[in-house]
Write a structure and sequence with these properties.
Elements (H helix, E strand, L loop, with lengths): L7 H22 L4 H26 L3 H28 L11 H25 L6 H22 L3 H22 L5 H29 L13
Helix pairs in contact: 1-2, 1-5, 1-6, 2-3, 2-6, 3-7, 4-5, 5-6, 6-7
């Protein structure tokens, strides 16, 4: 495993990029403005793209250069552009219906990171990898997944839920770049195109929701029950 045998310089670089991605998840969690969600997601995707290129350089995985370019193009540019078009077309600028306030969400997110750290430390100790970047990668991956689930749970604006799903997937993708950088290139490309399809489908569903119900809040989907 590359992450278990890193020199201090690449380990510090990977750690900085991973922590930066996690902090951007908290930016999304603590804001109600959809554009802030979007800009934070785009920045997070660029950090993951840089991470992919760095892992490719230090681990001699040439295919990760392609993954880095595709990540920057799809996650960092194309997906934010498509979501921004949806926001402008729907004229929805902020989250209105929330279960928790931003401050409460940040506190729960912090507890999620502590929980992820405890789980990751136990896994690292069991694999004799305690004190390596493996623990940090697992912590960031699990934390971003939990934050993504939290956003899906406490935010009801359809755009927020799209971005929550993308944050969750970004966490998995980030962890995979550090822990299993030899993942076949074809799988990486399929994942990126799947995300494009998901965003396109969400865009169509949101527009139908607005035209039929008059709002983009997923709370109105309860009308379909039964």
């Amino acid at each position: 495993m590359l992450a278990a045998h890193l020199d201090p310089l690449p380990a510090s670089l990977f750690s900085l990029l991973a922590i930066g991605s996690l902090l951007l998840s908290f930016v999304m969690l603590g804001s109600r403005w959809l554009r802030h969600y979007l800009y934070a997601f785009a920045a997070q995707s660029w950090l993951i793209a840089i991470l992919s290129g760095a892992v490719g350089y230090y681990g001699n995985y040439a295919e990760l250069y392609i993954v880095a370019i595709l990540t920057a193009a799809f996650r960092g540019l194309l997906l934010p552009y498509l979501i921004l078009r949806i926001i402008r077309r729907l004229e929805v600028h902020r989250e209105v219906h929330v279960i928790l306030q931003a401050s409460s969400s940040l506190v729960i997110g912090a507890f999620a990171v502590i929980f992820a750290l405890a789980v990751s430390y136990r896994i690292g100790a069991a694999l004799n990898l305690a004190g390596t970047i493996v623990v940090l990668a697992l912590t960031v991956m699990l934390s971003m997944k939990l934050i993504g689930f939290l956003m899906l749970s406490v935010r009801h604006e359809a755009i927020s839920q799209i971005l929550g799903l993308l944050v969750l997937e970004n966490g998995v993708f980030l962890g995979a770049q550090i822990l299993v950088p030899g993942m076949p290139l074809l799988i990486e490309i399929v994942i990126l195109f799947d995300l494009l399809i998901v965003v396109a489908c969400f865009g169509v569903l949101v527009q139908y929701l607005l035209s039929l119900v008059g709002t983009t809040s997923s709370l109105q989907l309860k009308r379909l029950v039964g």
